Amino acid sequence: TVLLHEVVHHAVFSVRRQRFERLLGFLYAVPSGISATQFTRWHLDHHAELGSPDADPKRHHLSPKVNRRWYKFLYCTPALFPIYFRAARRESACYPKEVRHTIAVERNVSVIVHLSALGLLVSLGGLGPAWRAYLAPVFLVFPVAFTLNRLGQHYSIDPTDPAGWSTLVRGHWFW
């Protein structure tokens, strides 16, 4: 997703190369199990609406509404997947039909690739290697990395001051 993020911000090539960026976005999204089209739309909408409780898709659909530690801890567990995909489904429901279709195709390709990789690992090595090489990294490591990435992101934003639009809470003891 880090590489996909760079494609979304046109930071890969010195000049825009739409077809190559689209191809790279797709190739980078598949291993992440997401749709490049939806990530692009979601992320650019997030930037355009940063801090809005309703228009910023990350804040509106993904940020926890329950302010309890046990609930926030769920984001560090495999529960992240239904939480995230529910948020993605809710956000994409407002997209035009052709965009929703593209997202569905990309998701289906991603699911097929992931299930094929898992099936290949299981058939070649059994459940042990599949657990070590695929299931544990995806379901145990990724949710923690995702949550750590979101630590320090904040939404207390003054829209008139672009200098304050960073993802770090200035003055917070952790940073």
Give a written overview of the molecule.
The chain has 175 residues and is an all-alpha fold. 64% of the residues lie in helices and 0% in strands. Helix 1 (2-8) packs antiparallel against helix 2 (18-32), helix 2 crosses helix 7 and helix 7 (97-125) packs across helix 8 (127-150). It starts with a helix and ends in a 25-residue tail after the last helix.
Number of strands: 0
Task: Please tally the helical runs, counting DSSP H or I stretches of 4 or more residues.
Answer: 8
- What proportion of the residues is helical, as a percent range? 55-70%
Instruction: Give helix and strand order, one letter per element, not per position.
Output: HHHHHHHH
Distance between termini? 24 Å
Percentage of residues in strands: under 5%
Helix-and-strand structural type: mainly alpha
Shape: globular
- Major sheet attributes: none
Mean pLDDT: 84
pLDDT < 50 stretches: 162-170
- Give the C-alpha Rg: 18 Å
What's a quick, concise take on this entry?
The protein has 175 residues and is mostly helical. Helices cover 64% and strands 0% of the residues.
Itemize the secondary structure elements and their pairings.
Elements: H1 2-8, H2 18-32, H3 36-48, H4 57-62, H5 69-73, H6 80-92, H7 97-125, H8 127-150
Descriptive terms for the model:
mainly alpha, about 65% helix
